[in-house]
Amino acid sequence: MTNPNVAVSDTQSAIAMAITAAAAVNNSSLFSPSPYNITLFSRNKFPKSIEAATAGKNIGWVDAMRASSPTRSSSENNQEKKDWIMKHPSALGVFEEIMSAAKMKQVVIFLDYDGTLSPIVENPDQAYMAPEMREAVKNVAKYFPTAIVSGRCRAKVYNFVRLSELYYAGSHGMDIKGPSSRKHKKGNQNVLCQPAKEFLPMMTEVYELLLEKTKGIIGANVENNKFCLSVHFRRVEEESWNDLADRVKSVLKDYPKLRLTQGRKVLEIRPTIKWDKGKAIEFLLESLGYANSKDVLPVYIGDDRTDEDAFKVLRERGQGFGILVSKVPKETEAVYSLQEPFEVMNFLQRLVTWKRSIMRSH
Ligand SMILES: [Mg+2]
């Protein structure tokens, strides 16, 4: 996938368009650089989007939004999918193989929430996880230190998961807290890390402004995730997306210390500090006492762009691996893949069975 002349499918084109358009709408400091390798795609396919977007018309922006939540079936291009699966095998398909490396190591589990443990739903307040999934996470946490790493605020993601034995990293890792019950003796349990604390008054101020500015747009939903504000497009009619994006940008132009990123039908506003899910997992591994350990195998499972920072950290450490949850081929730093939350649940269940069998054999 590093050959720039490779033919790209519609899905890839759509993703490329999303990335290119998002980068183009980046009138100076509003957007953070994309973590994706956009040189893979032919940029000159989308000059109109770029021009329109930079002219402030947001045409590329709408394409980006549409493409960020792909609805196309993978059957549209089976060969492309086969190639992608060869490159990022199913973590269930190669389970025994990948876990054989973990026998003598401490496995640490990092889990994104939305789209990983819960399905993506119309109303983000109703992104509940299934009881079976909660059970699977609970069982995993009996054997392995387990952290939820989410874009949502810590309190909100805790309310969905409701397992006190886990670590929680909310607001894309900017608000980290250790478990309230003690399961694992190693490392510091009383973890609390808020690297962007001084931004809190600003975030509250911008939240109020966004509420005010977006209230005329039907379906727009501004979510206060403490260190990250999310403007959801999911329930907004497509013809109003440009208007909504414009309104969000008009608020942000007065706040150069905040940056705007785009997720699956969501715009997110965060402090411009060098902190992301990747930094969060490094912090957690250190807190757990595994900063320089060779005996640790971190596994990170996530479905969105922001999870790429974590996948990248694991690649760079040469320790553990990322698993991308996706039904469609995507450029990713993850090593393995799973199709949907149901497969994530199966993977977690197999981890528990695997660990129990190892414990029995010793
Ligand atoms: Mg997610």
UniProtKB/TrEMBL annotation:
EC number of the protein: 3.1.3.12
Catalytic activity from the UniProt record: alpha,alpha-trehalose 6-phosphate + H2O = alpha,alpha-trehalose + phosphate
Named cofactor requirement(s): a divalent metal cation
BP GO terms, sorted: trehalose biosynthetic process
Pfam families from the UniProt entry: Trehalose_PPase
Gene3D superfamilies: HAD superfamily/HAD-like
GO MF entries: trehalose-phosphatase activity
CDD domains in UniProt: HAD_TPP
InterPro entries: HAD-like_sf, HAD-SF_hydro_IIB, HAD_sf, OTSB-like, Trehalose_PPase
Pathway: Glycan biosynthesis; trehalose biosynthesis
Keyword vocabulary terms for this entry: Hydrolase, Stress response
UniProt KW Nucleotidyltransferase keyword: no
Job of this protein: Removes the phosphate from trehalose 6-phosphate to produce free trehalose. Trehalose accumulation in plant may improve abiotic stress tolerance.
Family: Belongs to the trehalose phosphatase family.
NCBIfam families on file: HAD-SF-IIB, T6PP
Protein name (database record): Trehalose 6-phosphate phosphatase
Species assigned in the record: Helianthus annuus
Originating gene: TPPD
